[in-house]
Amino acid sequence: MNDKPEHFIIDGKRLDGRNLDELRPIKIEMSPLDRADGSCYLEWGNNKIMAAVYGPRELHPRHRQNMTRSVVQYRYNMASFSVDERIRPGPSRRSVEISKVSREAFEPVVFTKFFPRTAIDVFIEVLQADAGTRTAGINAASLALADAGIPMRGLVSACAVGKVDGRIVLDLMKEEDNYGEADMPVAMIAGGRITLLQMDGRLTTEEFYEALKLAKTGCDKVYELQRQALLEKYGGEHPVDAEDVSLEGDTDEQ
Ligand code: CDP
Predict the structure, then answer these.
(1) Predicted model pTM
(2) From CA 208, how far away is CA 190, in angstroms rounded?
(3) 133 lines ligand 1 (CB under 6 A)
(4) Are residues 195 and 187 in contact, defined by beta-carbon separation less than 8 angstroms?
(5) Tell me, what's the pLDDT at 249?
(6) Residue 121 Cβ contacting ligand 1 at under 6 Å
(7) Based on C-alpha coordinates, what's the Rg of the chain?
(8) How many domains, in total, are found in the chain?
(9) What's the pLDDT at 115?
(10) Whose CA is nearest to atom 19 of ligand 1?
(11) Is 232 part of any domain?
């Protein structure tokens, strides 16, 4: 692990040159996996995340089935090689916690009542980690769910905010996350309804509201990129060219 930097903000810029309210670059690739019902590969700064969605499909073991709705299952996993020190394979306290809060971030969003007795499985594989992997996972999962055709109230968009050198900043990278004064991941549905909010560290009430406001602007930016990715994949596939549409044939057949 790197040593704690003396300052995180120098002349108004962060260690990676960003402004305080700037996100790291985000790159989205839709449907990279052939076998999954929906998938998304997302890069966010130095984070590299793969999301796969299977379902709705029959849930086994059967005693876990719910007669009135689908059960959303979410597994967040870090590859052994995703960080400097090898991660032990298998679930850890951290990955179980992240899986739980991420699943809950989708609970108010997915129309589970449409698919009784089934499971909707979301798998997140962190291939490379650099802070903010749970929020990156949620953004990728949201798109993979949409790619799988799962009906949802809206896309869930997530980002972290935090405090370094006494200032509130958007989208912490690793040094800021590890050595900063606070880290607050947030997920919300377009429009601002919060579905995940965690906090590590300390903020005053005023700082908390400032951080929440900044998180909302971050989530809005993420949402726009998610929307663009879906539009590129699905929006323009069958464009209707007005010159190709002839009404004469229709009239003849009537
Ligand atoms: O990734 P996220 O910010 O959602 O969760 P975190 O628990 O705050 O972890 C912050 C970062 O610490 C991760 O993204 C990794 O880069 C790093 N980390 C690590 O190096 N080794 C671990 N066992 C867990 C996290």
Answers:
(1) 0.92
(2) 20
(3) yes
(4) yes
(5) 35
(6) no
(7) 21
(8) 1
(9) 97
(10) 83
(11) yes
